[in-house]
Write a structure and sequence with these properties.
Elements: E1 2-13, E2 16-25, E3 28-33, E4 41-46, E5 51-54, E6 56-61, H1 74-84, E7 86-91, H2 102-115, E8 119-125, H3 131-140, E9 144-148, H4 168-179, E10 185-188, H5 192-199, H6 212-229, E11 233-235, H7 241-252, E12 257-261, H8 263-267, H9 273-276, H10 289-301, E13 306-307, H11 316-321, H12 337-346, H13 352-357, H14 361-366, E14 384-394, E15 415-425, E16 428-432, E17 435-436
Parallel strand pairs: 1-4, 1-5, 6-7, 7-8, 8-9, 9-10, 10-11, 11-12, 12-13
Antiparallel strand pairs: 1-2, 2-3, 5-14, 14-15, 15-16, 16-17
Helix pairs in contact: 4-6, 5-6, 6-7
Amino acid sequence: MLDLRIVGGTVVSDGRSRPADVGLSGDLIVEVAPQGGLGPARREINASGLLVIPGAVDAHFHCRAPSHPERATFGSESRAAASSGVTTLFEMPISNPPCSTPEAFELRRELGEAESLVDFALYSGAGFSDPARAEAMAECGAIGFKLFTHHPPPERIDEFEGLCAGAPEEIYDCLRTVGATGLRSAVHAESQQFIVRFRQDEDRFGHPARPPLVEAAAVGLVATIARDLGTPTHIVHITSRLAMEEVQAAQALGVDLSAESCPHYLLLDESAIPEFGNFVKVGPPLRPEADAAYLWEALVEGSLSVVASDHAPFTPEEKSAASYAESGQGIPSLEMLVPAMLDAGLTGRLPLARAVEVMTANPAKLYGIYPRKGTISPGSEADLVLVDPEATRTVRSSEFLARSGGSGRAYDGMKLKGKVLTTLSRGRTVFEAGRVKGESGGRFVRPDGPPQHVVQTQDAG
């Protein structure tokens, strides 16, 4: 007998939608059958009129534990994740200490296992060229490696140790070293040389300039290195057409180069800067509306294959107190990831199946945890989200559960179609009827196999 069956819903997974029932035993999906085709179960959820999608895999998430608990903790942010349909978090290595040594990795893992309500994975820093160190981080279970191609902020050097390489030859050495492990490298691509060059200029809002060339030049360099080394590489938070075209050019040459963007780059543009100031300061910065439009086009045709939150929490008090130049870069976008993609799929901006795929199967494939995660298939872990496709909600950052959620005020008032009703993490109900259920129980996730290359076609529907 099944432990749970979810019946009457429309399953949206792996690039297609179909009426189907889902059967669970313990923490696994054991059967996906035509409606009415499952046997008896101890419990049943009637999903008539609802969508059933895989739990989202957020491949770019910061809580900075154990430092700055006033901004975020694994406990607070994992509860926010559960409430919004995210069931796996990939935590970036910025912290004090940064997650770039085995000792720091184990500390971070223990903290996550003690506090997180949903499952989580950990990146290692990639800013070193010692093969033994890279192999040690892989043996710890790193989901991948994270590299910044620019120097750390002077006031945050301790948080970025082992994460950065600013010179082209250093970037090459780091990517070669960590690439030898077989894991994918996630790269924050901005050119240190061009950051310095444009620092003396101002953008049209009077802020230090960081034009698309800063991003695109670094993407082009990383793409060339990835092509030369043959290593799987991922560009995080693409913001501009110029940078995206560098990715597309590399993909046309067969390079295993994937890219992501984020809710703030898709839903906001630089016109928000005069109104919201520090609250929309991100790195790279928001771009003109035409760049956001191009990112949507890239999502439709598949060269932009992931949407992740880049949840980067700073408290409203911190944001308010600083000048724009000194303000921390980041927006708390965790609770916008699934809602933004659902709205895009339900309003026709993206095919619905594509909107689901870019936050579920694709990141899981890129980092070697598919089909354990990111899909509704027999044998997969029972990470499931039930969605009312007809409901419409108005975003209020004051209702975000993330500890720094109030810094997401630029999202206030957005009307989004689709509402998360229930979230299951490995068969456990962690969100239901507007309430988070449970305090912990999330598990550490390590890669099951090698990274896969994501290839998409334009007719995903």
